[in-house]
Structure formats: C-alpha cells, structure tokens
Specification:
alpha+beta; 3-stranded antiparallel beta sheet
Length: 183
C-alpha cells in the first residue's frame, strides 16, 4: 500500500458521491470507508464512519419510505454536525468530566456473554469491554489516550449486572489512581 493511500482517511467513492462533505470530514479527521459487503450492482453503496457508524445504504426510512440520496446527505450532515457540536462541548470539559461521560454510558450497557460492549461519544472518546468469564476493557479519550484499564474476575453466583457494576467501579478506581500519579 502506498504512503498516499495510507494517509487518505476518506475513500475515493465517498469523495465521488458526496464531495460537499469531504472538506468537513477531513477537518474532523474522521475515517470514512465503503463497506465490502454490499458492493453489488443495483445496490446502494454503504459508507461507514470510523468503522462503527453507518452513514448511507439504508433500505427504508423510519416512516417506511425508501431511503434516498437526499436522505443519505441529510444523515451525513447530521452525523458530522453531532461530531462538531460534541467536540465543542468536550473542549470545555476537564479530563475527569470527559471520563465521567463515558462511564455514564458504560453503566447503561446490558452485558451479553461473549459480546464486546463499546461506548462511543461523538467527539471520539470511547470505552470497551469484552464480556467473557472475566470482564476486560478500558477507556480511551480522544487526544489523551488510555486513561483507565481493568479486569473484573468472574464470581460464582454473581449476575452480569453486578459484574458490570464491579467492572465500572474498578475502571473508576484505576482512573483515580492514574490521575493521582499524574499530579
């Protein structure tokens, strides 16, 4: 793969189909790629934002009408605006406040065995947890890096919700420890 291709975060197809959004997407530093799954003639292209959020290629709108090119453009605009607005909000927050936003969403997850739970805040802050026998994961803040990592061992007779609560408490304890070390 050439160096120019590696540095290009926006796929060529997106540049051709939605040139009006390329400059905003580049300014935000997001990655947009074309799904390999539906590259068939007669099917709409499916573009993904940072590998987790579908931008286009829906079959139907919420009202049951067909998803059109105009709907795709509106959806892209809405998502890029959410990112811009959330980054403006996050710029005013401290690192502990940003961490607290991720943890608030983490505690809402309903764990399922062998699932990967992810929290993604529009500004790029994120957390993840592998729901195996042991819950293992961490939190990464955009522009800061990893701010907490932990593991919650499985306990006989404990519910998934209780184990997730223990995992979240351990993440918060690790974050507090790292903050004390940084001071």
């Amino acid at each position: 793969m050439t160096k120019a291709k590696k540095e290009n975060k926006i796929c060529r197809s997106f540049r051709q189909d939605f040139p009006e959004f390329v400059e905003r997407a580049e300014a935000l530093g997001v990655r947009i790629h074309l799904s390999k799954a539906r590259r068939r003639p007669g099917h709409d292209r499916v573009f993904w934002l940072d590998g987790y959020r579908q931008l286009t290629g829906y079959t139907l709108r919420a009202d049951g009408m067909p998803f059109t090119l105009m709907d795709a453009a509106n959806n892209i605009d809405k998502i890029l605006t959410q990112i811009e607005d959330d980054r403006a909000v996050a710029a005013e927050l401290s690192i502990p406040e940003r961490f607290a936003r991720v943890m608030e969403e983490f505690r809402k997850i309903v764990p399922l065995y062998q699932m990967i739970g992810e929290v993604r805040i529009p500004n790029g802050d994120m957390g993840h947890c592998f729901f195996m026998a042991n819950y293992d994961g961490g939190v990464r803040l955009e522009g800061v890096g990893d701010v907490a990592k932990t593991k919650a061992e499985w306990r006989q007779g404990e519910t998934d919700a209780a184990q997730l609560g223990r995992f979240c408490d351990a993440l918060e304890a690790d974050f507090a420890r790292r903050q004390e070390e940084a001071e």
